[in-house]
Amino acid sequence: MKLNIKNLLAYLFIVAVAVLFMLFLDGPGGSYLLIALATAFILSFALFRWTASTMSARIAVSEDVLNKGDNVNIKVVLNKRGVIPTALVNFSFSCSVHFRSEGQKDFCSVIFGQDEYSVEKSFSSVFFGSAYAGVDGIFISDYFGIFTYSLALPELRREIRIYPDIPEVSGRDNFARSLTDAVSFDDNEETSQSMVSINGVPGYDHRKYVPGDNLKLINWKLSAKRGELLVRQLEGTGGAEQVFVLVRDDLYFEESQFAAEAMLGLMMIFAKAELPVRAVIYINDSWQEFSVRNVPELSQLRYKMTDYFIFPLKRYCEENKCPVDRNMRKIAIPDSVEGDRAVVFAPVYDENLRAFTDRLTTLGKDCQTAVCSGEITDKNTKRIVRDNLSVRFTD
């Protein structure tokens, strides 16, 4: 229980005025006023103690896994005893930067009658990753605001996972075509000794062509011999694997989100064509690698991305009315990347990104970058342009 000294002094001042009124102006009237003030204080304190000792609360959420754009309802359920009105109940809804909401977030009221009373608030998800929504706390106070008690809750906030979008990237996009061409093989590789098929014959595993397969994967020589279209299955071709690296920067929260979704959009082209790609992503305070060879595996990575968290540094500084301290900025860039061919997706083109790509180039790796903002001075860097649910890469 906390004591509000300011409100206590205000109450004592009113009592002092009532005493002066009784002594110098109207004795009986002042006496009635003092009795009323004392009675109100006693009743207020008694209801406060009763409410604090008997009321309980819990938080419920309508969904704990969402797609971007979906709404989640946060419900605060308050339980009381009997028909006696409660003291003042105060709380404020809160959420992470991933949500937007309209209307009043604060609640302050006296609960009458019913044993159970609920207040509900709707939040709309606008960013993906590991999010939360709930309340800052539930507080009971007397009518004078002198005493405050924090109601115990099992949990103030609930964790909510939000799926990232996978935007559409046109297969005719020059950047996408250049990447898929780099990991496609020509027909002369049919007898390559680097792969052994399931039946023990040197070469690639094949399957029948289905509409939507990348035409570059059709093995025309073998198809002509067999009399049906056959496409290569490239699972396991480590040397052909494209590597995508996702850079995270909490000074650029929204740009980091867009860079991640642009990467997923490009991975979808690879997955539909069954071209192997490996994603290097900073999740749960460590660098993790995810190999994707088809659409189901990309769906699994999309779920993993619900653990993705970026600290919204700019918004934090705005809410706390403090300048952005560059020392608080945290950038997640790996020391190095395995593989000969890498594409780095980053929120901004700056000196940190240039130093990393220069290091990869020095190591002899084929490195390209795709960024959301910043002044681009490198010919191997593309700008990510977002248009609703589609993405394109421009010079």
Measured between the Cα atoms of the first and last residue, the distance is 62 Å
**Sheet with the most strands?**
8 strands, mixed
Please tell me the overall pLDDT: 86
User: Which class do the helix and strand fractions yield?
Assistant: alpha/beta
List the helices and strands and how they pair.
Layout: E1 2-3, H1 5-24, H2 27-54, E2 56-61, E3 65-67, E4 71-79, E5 88-95, E6 99-100, E7 106-109, E8 116-125, E9 129-141, E10 147-150, E11 157-163, E12 168-169, H3 174-183, E13 205-208, H4 220-226, E14 230-233, E15 242-246, E16 248-249, H5 253-272, E17 277-283, E18 286-292, H6 295-304, H7 313-319, E19 331-332, E20 341-348, H8 351-362, E21 366-373, E22 381-387, E23 390-394
Parallel strand pairs: 3-11, 12-23, 15-17, 15-20, 20-21, 21-22
Antiparallel strand pairs: 1-10, 2-4, 4-8, 5-7, 5-9, 6-8, 9-10, 9-11, 13-14, 16-19, 17-18, 22-23
Helix pairs in contact: 1-2, 5-6
Q: What features would you describe in this structure?
A:
With 395 residues, the chain is α/β, with parallel strands linked by helices. The chain folds into 3 domains: 1-162, Immunoglobulin-like, CATH 2.60.40.10; 168-180 and 237-394, no CATH class; 186-233, no CATH class. It is built from 8 helices and 23 strands. The chain has helices spanning 5-24, 27-54, 174-183, 220-226, 253-272, 295-304, 313-319, 351-362; strands at 2-3, 56-61, 65-67, 71-79, 88-95, 99-100, 106-109, 116-125, 129-141, 147-150, 157-163, 168-169, 205-208, 230-233, 242-246, 248-249, 277-283, 286-292, 331-332, 341-348, 366-373, 381-387, 390-394. 29% of the residues lie in helices and 33% in strands. It starts with a strand and ends with a strand. The strands form 5 sheets. An 8-stranded mixed β-sheet has the order 12-23-22-21-20-15-17-18. Strands 1, 3, 5, 7, 9, 10 and 11 form a 7-stranded mixed β-sheet that branches. Strands 2-4-8-6 form a 4-stranded antiparallel β-sheet, with no helix packed on it.
